[in-house]
């Protein structure tokens, strides 16, 4: 093949530093929109974004010429700078993140799950959820 073709869909999750509840009301919607712009600028495609007061979930197509860590670094650094300038000067993301590959057949299910984050986390915390995924339960 003379060209490279990829179809790598990532479900990315990261939290605010110390799980502080910065993402309330319009700020969550606004930061998801801003993250969409970041992903478009790195030639990716946002498929879904959402979250709760202390974390975000992003489903996106990984650009074929970027590594996951480069995308995460770009998304987190630019969005945190934007949030500090527009909402709260003390805002930071935690250093870590969780990333899971998503098959094409599960994109709809994961998208729906991301859009219903606030309802979902009334039943299970983010920490409990990550432990569940990582244990394979």
Outline:
It is built from five helices and four strands.
What this model shows, in words?
A hairpin with a 2-residue loop joins strand 2 (45-52) and strand 3. This protein starts with 8 loop residues before the first strand and ends with a helix. The chain has a four-stranded antiparallel sheet, sandwiched between helices. With 137 residues, it is α+β, with helices and mostly antiparallel strands. The chain contains five helices and four strands, in the order E-H-E-E-H-E-H-H-H. The longest helix has 19 residues, at 68-86. Helix 1 crosses helix 2 (68-86). The mean pLDDT is 90. It has helices spanning 26-41, 68-86, 107-115, 117-120, 126-135, and strands spanning 9-15, 45-52, 55-61, 98-102.
Mean pLDDT: 90
What is the rounded Rg? 15 Å
Q: What is the general shape?
A: globular
What order do the SSEs take from the amino end to the carboxyl end, as H and E?
Answer: EHEEHEHHH
Q: How many beta-strand elements?
A: 4
Structural class: alpha+beta
Name the descriptors:
4-stranded antiparallel beta sheet, 137 residues, alpha+beta
Helices, strands, pairings?
Blueprint: E1 9-15, H1 26-41, E2 45-52, E3 55-61, H2 68-86, E4 98-102, H3 107-115, H4 117-120, H5 126-135
Antiparallel strand pairs: 1-3, 1-4, 2-3
Helix pairs in contact: 1-2
